[in-house]
């Protein structure tokens, strides 16, 4: 489990094609400072398992399904990525509960700057719209963000300079794909309410 608070911006150093997967080599000295093989690290919001710990990074295998369901399939050598270690007991939950299980892929539609913040608009897949509410939480590329506006097929977030500087949103370009994970609480509520209505 993660909190959606990005610890550092990492870099894809190598992509190795395996039989039915891709092995990523990612530079990230902060998140690997106390990591060991088998640990979980969120890469742009996707929970990956450390295969090998390197001096200032790690390798992780990504199965084809994950490549198809996330933006990881678009990575190239040099791609910048948001990184976060898994939450440990006793830590503050500064963002919201993020599982590292991507629900869908959107893309940056537009960005508008103002004096103290920047508004980014992302496309929103139709099957995720019902889980997104204004002032609610969403994880975009593994970053816990508050939804400032939501429409029939889009959502907006308002980002302060600190967030832009400490995540990959600062240099994100229009048309770039993003991983979306909706608040898991919304999905549980939907299931429980649906089950309640199905009771005789």
Strand-helix topology:
Blueprint: E1 8-17, E2 21-27, E3 40-43, E4 46-49, E5 52-53, E6 57-63, H1 64-69, E7 80-85, E8 104-113, E9 118-123, E10 137-140, E11 143-150, E12 154-159, H2 161-166, E13 177-182, H3 184-198
Antiparallel strand pairs: 1-2, 1-7, 2-6, 3-4, 3-7, 5-6, 8-9, 8-13, 9-12, 10-11, 10-13, 11-12
Short description:
This protein has 200 residues and is mainly beta. Helix content is 14%, strand content 40%.
Could you please describe the fold and organization of this structure?
With 200 residues, this protein is mainly beta. It has 2 domains: 8-85, Beta Barrel (Elongation Factor Tu (Ef-tu), domain 3); 104-191, Elongation Factor Tu (Ef-tu), domain 3. The chain has helices at 64-69, 161-166, 184-198, and strands spanning 8-17, 21-27, 40-43, 46-49, 52-53, 57-63, 80-85, 104-113, 118-123, 137-140, 143-150, 154-159, 177-182. The strands form 2 sheets. Strands 4-3-7-1-2-6-5 form a 7-stranded antiparallel sheet. The protein has a 6-stranded antiparallel β-barrel with strand order 8-9-12-11-10-13. The protein is globular and about 45 Å long. The termini are far apart. The mean pLDDT is 92.
């Amino acid at each position: 489990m993660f909190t959606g608070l990005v610890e550092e911006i990492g870099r894809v150093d190598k992509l190795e094609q395996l039989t039915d997967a891709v092995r990523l080599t990612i530079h990230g000295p902060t998140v690997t400072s106390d990591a060991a093989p088998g640990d979980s690290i969120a890469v742009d919001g996707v929970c990956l398992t450390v295969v090998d710990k390197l001096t200032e990074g790690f390798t992780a295998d990504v199965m084809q399904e994950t490549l198809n369901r996330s933006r990881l399939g678009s990575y190239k050598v040099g791609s910048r990525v948001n990184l976060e270690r898994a939450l440990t007991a006793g830590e503050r939950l500064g963002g919201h509960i993020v599982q590292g299980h991507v629900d869908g892929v959107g893309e940056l539609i537009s960005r508008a700057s103002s004096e103290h913040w920047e508004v980014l608009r992302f496309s929103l897949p139709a099957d995720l719209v019902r889980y997104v509410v204004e002032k609610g939480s969403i994880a975009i590329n593994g970053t816990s963000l508050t939804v400032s506006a939501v429409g029939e097929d889009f959502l907006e977030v308002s980002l302060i300079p600190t967030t832009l500087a400490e995540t990959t949103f600062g240099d994100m370009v229009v048309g770039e794909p993003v991983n979306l994970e909706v608040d898991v609480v919304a999905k549980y509520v939907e299931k429980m309410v649906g089950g309640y209505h199905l009771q005789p």
